[in-house]
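Would you mind giving me a polypeptide sequence along with per-residue structure tokens?
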Amino acid sequence: MIDLKCQPLTAEAFAQFGDVIEVNGPPHKLINAGKCGRHHDLARLDFRGGRAGISLFNAEIRSLPYILDLMERHPDGSQAFIPMAHVPFLVTVAPDEGDRPGTPLAFMTRAGQGINLHRGIWHGVLTPLHLPGLFAVVDQIGDSANLDEVSLDPPFRVVP
């Protein structure tokens, strides 16, 4: 088994895989009579066919070290994960190498960060590390299967 060390999630480190969704700096504009800051257009949603939908995922809590043995991708749409609680979570992604995941990377979000995985990006399953494991998810809703899965052999062990 290969150890995979977590790194902090930053927009720069994550750019080839997707977008970091977070409040970073002043709002783009004030709305609601100046009582609300709008942090505008934080993720590139991209759908081939179908439509955008919002779902709630309630995932089982995991812990570190975490065994990464399955990766998936969604060829027809991006997928955004926004935690419904102010807690960090684990994100695993990998570049594509011949229609299979290459060597994965592990990122630890900060409380208040979400992610948007670009269309076709290999990623691990939703991996909350704290209760509740509730996430708002924005992704493609349509008739296509929109899922490729690959078991990793050997698996990776994600460590802090």
